[in-house]
Amino acid sequence: MGKEVKILCFIALALVLMVGITPALAYFTTRVSANGGYTIDLTSTTSIDEEFSDWEKRITVTNTKGEPVFVRARAYAGSAITLVYSGEGWKAGEDGWYYYDSALSEGQSTETPLCVQIQNVPEAADKASFNVAVVYESTPVQYKADGTAYADWTMTLDIGGKGE
Amino acid sequence: MKQAERSRILTWVLLIFALCLLIIGSLGAANALPQITSEYYSGGIEMYDIGVELIENDVVVSSRTYSENARYVWDEEDGALLGSLLAEGEKFHLGQVYREELCVNNSGKIDEYVRVTIYRYWQDANGKKITTLSPDLIDLHLVTGGDWIKDEQASSTERTVLYHTSVVPAGKKTSLFADSLCVSGDIPYKVTQTEENGVITTTYDYEGVTFQVEITVDAVQTHSAEEAIRSAWGRKVTITNDRLSLS
Hints:
The structure holds two protein chains of two kinds.
Chain A: H1 3-24, E1 29-39, E2 44-53, E3 56-66, E4 69-76, E5 82-86, E6 90-92, E7 98-100, E8 114-119, E9 133-140, E10 142-143, E11 149-150, E12 158-159
Antiparallel strand pairs in A: 2-3, 3-8, 4-7, 4-9, 5-8, 6-7, 10-11
Chain B: H1 3-41, E1 51-56, E2 59-67, E3 73-78, E4 98-105, E5 112-123, E6 129-130, E7 138-142, E8 148-150, E9 159-164, E10 178-183, E11 190-196, E12 199-204, E13 210-221, H2 225-233, E14 237-240, E15 243-246
Antiparallel strand pairs in B: 1-2, 1-4, 2-3, 4-10, 5-6, 5-9, 5-13, 7-10, 8-9, 11-12, 14-15
């Protein structure tokens, strides 16, 4: 087949395709899109401050950086010792912990300290060697469907799920 | 007859054949055009004005309409989704249910069929998609079972495709296809622990990542809708009495 014939065949095929394509381009369509989202911040840093005088420990917890948290605290001592707790905003739980009733945002501290009065101290005890251990914990603020903040101390870490 | 002469004759035959095809094709189009034009012209020249808008909480966030008012060019408006979810200074709360009412408006002057494609995913600080984090924790609550049906074949964990089963008349809105958004409150408890030299380090799986909701709305003409949808969207549908169903 000569070159001239090949060119004509190509032109004929192109014309046929052009005729066929025209109806396919006749549909009216349109499209819109939009996207958005928010970044998740989870980290928080808290610190505890203890003052001790007159056989009383005064505990203040501060959210030094990050997301809002709820906090709880308690003290441990020998069985002969009696610990008496007090402090506005601190509520006793059935599990021995004392729960601060407000969430602490970044930079906020507990407004009133948790006071732990140490009673029945043995006469031989001295302040330098006497040991009452104070511990505290924080948990991220959780939100109900209506936006009400609450603490869920029963949640456990889901380790190793790789986000699933 | 010599070989050269036969080739020349064949060449001319093919040339005439090609010209015939061109003329026939042109005549066909020329014949069809007045019929189609007259049919649509009876309703006005709005036949070209197809348009669609995505509406979030009663506000248009994105639109694309072919408009005679804009001298027959696409009148487009792009906006951000979820941009009005929070008040000034407010932070997004995990676990809280936010109002996220989404629907589609036919902003054109011809009736149309519409579908929406919803993507939910996580991305890092560089905007790169993270496929190991779960889209299921981004709960965009869908309203299906009424006018909207889910295309199970085309949907996945990340992507959901919904078809509106009835024609959306010009200037009318669809019913809602989503009504709320909630990102799981379990996220702070999903962690990974690593141990090095006896030191255990716990890191949040979702710290610093961004959840994304992306929505695309497609609209197509109702004339020859089955063929138009097959051609434009690649999906075979059946339309009976103006009701669309997935084949």
